[in-house]
């Protein structure tokens, strides 16, 4: 599995996930032109994308979803609530509704939508699994949530990679320029994770097999890379085998990283019987 964060932040979100011949974009908050340039910078080709997964309808995640479908022919997968709320919906024949807890198989990539608390119509995060003769790889992209319910945290077990929201530093937010109603919304249980909340969720997901952590959706005004790193590193310092840590950029594509399979357990339990990351 190969993953690349093309952009992450309130100005636009778009990520690339690749397994076998499947090339999936997660969110379409960038214009096609910008997304194509970011892909080229990362050694990827936007024209090879096969599917688009949309987490929710907020413009920084869905702005170009209709254009991506019409111009690139991408199949668009999102919850019914998200599809109905899109400002520029894709053609009906390219819309494929999904639901939290119901896995989706796209070629070599198994996708698990995870319900998240956010002030959108029917938002989800996404977990991914690739299985092959050599074993399996698991990753998750979890942003845009105001809190982390126990069920969500339990679904992030045994990951190889985690792209995790660390939106704001609480002090910077409270002392910053945003109006009070926006500060209240961000800090609410359906807003965005603070660095401290993100660190708590990271601690729940941390295990010896976690190889990559990417901090994402940092606020341009209410956070800094140093603040986010400090919170994450305080958690990772307690790990015997700490994963590689990176911070996603709003204005440039990150370095793609490849996850090779690790040994799979002897028995595979179908997703309809057991949550992909359940125990």
Give a verbal description of the structure.
Helix 8 (195-205) runs parallel beside helix 9 (225-236). This protein has 279 residues and is α/β, with parallel strands linked by helices. The protein has a single domain (2-257), classed as Ribonuclease Z/Hydroxyacylglutathione hydrolase-like (Metallo-beta-lactamase, Chain A, 4-Layer Sandwich). It has helices at residues 32-41, 59-62, 65-72, 80-85, 150-154, 170-175, 180-187, 195-205, 225-236; strands at 2-7, 14-19, 22-26, 51-53, 75-79, 95-98, 104-106, 109-115, 124-132, 135-142, 161-165, 212-216, 244-247, 257-258. The strands form two sheets. Strands 6-5-4-3-2-1-14 form a seven-stranded mixed beta sheet. A seven-stranded mixed beta sheet has the order 7-8-9-10-11-12-13, covered by helices on one side. The protein contains nine helices and 14 strands. The radius of gyration is 17 Å and the shape is globular.
């Amino acid at each position: 599995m190969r993953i690349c964060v093309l952009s992450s932040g309130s100005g636009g979100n778009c990520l690339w996930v690749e397994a076998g011949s499947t090339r999936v974009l997660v969110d379409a908050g960038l214009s096609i032109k910008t997304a194509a340039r970011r892909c080229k910078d990362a050694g990827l080709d936007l024209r090879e994308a096969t599917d688009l997964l949309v987490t929710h309808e907020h413009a920084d995640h869905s702005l170009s979803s209709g254009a991506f479908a019409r111009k690139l022919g991408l199949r668009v997968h999102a919850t019914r609530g998200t599809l109905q709320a899109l400002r520029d919906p894709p053609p009906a024949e390219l819309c494929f509704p999904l639901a939290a807890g119901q896995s989706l198989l796209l070629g070599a990539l198994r996708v698990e939508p995870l319900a998240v608390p956010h002030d959108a119509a029917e938002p989800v995060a996404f977990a991914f699994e690739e299985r092959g003769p050599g074993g399996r790889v698991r990753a998750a992209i979890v942003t845009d949530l105001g809190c982390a319910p126990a069920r969500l945290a339990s679904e992030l077990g045994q990951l190889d990679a985690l792209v995790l929201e660390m939106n704001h530093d609480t002090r910077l937010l409270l002392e910053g320029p945003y109006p009070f109603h926006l500060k209240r919304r961000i800090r609410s249980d359906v807003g965005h994770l603070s660095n401290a909340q993100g660190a708590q969720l990271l601690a729940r997901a941390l295990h010896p097999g976690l190889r990559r952590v990417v901090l994402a959706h940092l606020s341009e005004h209410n956070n800094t890379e140093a603040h986010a790193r400090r919170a994450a590193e305080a958690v990772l310092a307690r790990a015997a085998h700490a994963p590689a840590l990176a911070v996603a950029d709003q204005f440039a594509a990150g370095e793609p990283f490849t996850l090779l399979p690790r040994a799979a357990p002897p028995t595979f339990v179908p997703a309809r019987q057991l949550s992909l990351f359940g125990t």
